Backbone:
């Protein structure tokens, strides 16, 4: 028979172990954020304008209010506010109707001070002016943990020539 004190200690250790096992890790939380971002940036056929606006605002809310965006092929290298991110997502969704965004081959590196560096491939599968296309881009993404939540703080599209 186990002494009641040891039984209590074992129960606490068991519960702590179960909680740690089932709590998602930072890496899993970041991967979920990427999946959510992909879903919000995707434009299914017949998406209503109100839904487009809501999804764009939702995607922007996953970012810090000062989010660096770098895309050398488009001469973009500046800080965007959440409002500017939302506006640009709306424009993108209108230019790329029926497009699905997804992230693949993701590598997450948690660095000190509540920051993470993410290397991933974004895949676009959609329609552009009645033509089907599939495209992929490597991205370097930085994230910050603010108030316990991971937010995107920088996006950089890695150009083929940079590799």
Residues:
């Amino acid at each position: 028979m186990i002494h009641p004190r040891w039984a209590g200690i074992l129960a606490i250790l068991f519960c702590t172990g179960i909680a740690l096992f089932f709590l998602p890790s930072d890496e899993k939380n970041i991967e979920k954020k990427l999946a959510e971002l992909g879903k919000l940036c995707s434009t299914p056929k017949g998406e209503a304008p109100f839904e487009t606006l809501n999804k764009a605002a939702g995607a922007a809310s996953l970012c810090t209010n000062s989010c660096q965006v770098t895309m050398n092929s488009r001469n973009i290298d500046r800080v965007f506010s959440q409002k500017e991110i939302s506006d640009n997502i709306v424009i993108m969704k209108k230019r790329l109707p029926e497009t699905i965004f997804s992230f693949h081959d993701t590598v997450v590196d948690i660095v000190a001070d509540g920051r993470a560096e993410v290397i991933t491939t974004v895949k676009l599968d959609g329609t552009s002016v009645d033509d089907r296309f599939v495209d992929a881009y490597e991205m370097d993404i930085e994230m910050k943990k603010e108030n316990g939540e991971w937010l995107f703080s920088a996006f950089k599209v890695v150009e083929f020539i940079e590799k």
Observations:
- The chain has four helices and six strands.
- The chain has a mean pLDDT of 87.
